[in-house]
Amino acid sequence: MSAAAPPIFEVFAYDLATLTRLAAELSGKNTEATISRKSHPAYLDGYFKTLKVQTIVVERPYVDRDYLEDFAAYYVTCFIDYERYCARMHFFSSTFDKSAFEALLLGAPGAVTAESLQTSYCGFIVVKPLPQTVFGRTCLKTYPKTDRRDFSVARTFHANLFGINLKIAETLPFQEQDNVVAACATSALWSVLHATAKEFQHAQLTPIAITRAATEFLPAETRMIPNRGGLATAMMAEAIRHVGLEPLALNAPTNDDATLKGALYAYLRARIPIVLGVRLCNTTTPPGDDNIVGDHAIAVAGFSLSEQPAPPVTSSGFRHRAARIDKIYAHDDQVGPFARMEFDGKIVTVELDDGKGQLAAHSLSTSWRASDGSTNAIRAVPIILLIPLYHKIRIPFEDIIETVSGFHKFLATAQPLNQVVGADNLEWDIHLTTVNDLKLDLQECRQLSGSPRLKWLTQPMPRFIWRALARKGNDRVFDVFFDATDIHTSDGVHGVLCYDDALAAALALIAGNPKIEALPELPDGARRILRRLREMLLITP
Amino acid sequence: MKRLHKEEEERRQLVEKTVEYLTSPDGKRALRDAEDESKKAAEPYRQAREVPQERLNRRFTI
User: Fold this and answer.
1) pLDDT per residue as tens digits for the range A40-68
2) Does A54 touch chain B (CB under 8 A)?
3) Is residue A207 less than 8 Å (CB to CB) from chain B?
4) Beta partners for A348?
């Protein structure tokens, strides 16, 4: 007599024990003890408490495209009979039981409606039928948005549960590596490419497709699947090229959080997630080989800004809003989605294998647990950033920083004009954006009205724009737009929006003065911005 | 009309005084290091583009 088929749907009240039991049962390959030893359940429990999850609906069988491709390429050829189907757990912040859910499916009136499910939907986790590595495609709501938290890279994803269309307004897919077709770098890249596939319209690669694309040419001498050796930055860059994007690799400076934050902010605000390679080290063991946990890749999906004003980075008081970043939220496949990592200023002594021996390096907190179960012991030292860019994004970030800081220096020096500008109190928000996002922002801006508003909303602009927005408190003062698609030898300043008409007129008059034009000491950045402002206001010298 | 005229006059004076200061020896001295300062602000980002080969080839394995 064959065993009865498991129910197609079940409903449970949420708690950690139920989550753990379900992950074990639905995988069909694990005990609860196996799942409990993983770091994910405890992390997810904390996350679900923030989202106020009350109820789990289990859907099975569930066909998951990513797993199915991995199954077809690898697991199906194993002697052991691995399942081709997954299961899916859906999470809701409302309370209901199986009979109420069943009533909805039967079309009977009841307390649970499609609308109430949508309102309380927090997302889903696909459970893979594999030993140990069970957490497949996971789409969960981000932390509640505040003025401080930014999840620009998050996108809308949909789930269809027995005909009920459920929307996750803001998320970025996550999954843990399976250690077979995917390593940590594959999982990080998989998350990142999900966002860029929507942003830049390229194919969404499955984990096995990413590993294959990454290792098509490198390394030539050995096999890469099963992938237990991980991926190098050069390999990840190949996978990025495979989808038609350009990889931008940046070295993470050992003792300079400001540069790291500047780069993260510039691209995350443009809705481009970033692969961050880190060296994990255990601070409970003495510096040396023993304190190195390993090198790990994560996908940075958001950040939080401190309420403290950004410190000046130059002697003329140039402040960069990015310096306010106090936390990042990262998809860490060994922890979970949107894992908090804090810039708490702690320095660790670690060997970075770059020939410099033991170094004192800036580090971020992690949600990793040390082997003795302690938290806060494992620290992440950033090594590298890998940013997938559309080929038309050409002008590098450093050119914008140089130009804007030159303009700031001019403003700070120009007395008595600076008494009106107040350069010391300006904070520059410098990031990449698109014409659509920029116009949406300008359209919602209350400081812009009348004919300037009409002009800015209707004028043709390049698709990708570097934006330098100077604020004084919450008030906007200047907006400088650079054509990111231009060539670097060009002037590059697409437009200057001065939110104060009187200040704009004064600046344009100064810019148009022949003595200022001829001033050799004027920084090049200031000269270019002033020239463009003058051209735009049609004031000729 | 008078108010507009007054504002224009104030702006003209502000512009004149600013131009006068920027072209004075003090103003020029204050601006002299501006180019260096802006290059210095951008330098860490330029350096970040130079990724050592060892780091490009380092495997992320855990």
Assistant:
1) 999 999 999 999 999 999 999 999 999 99
2) no
3) no
4) A361
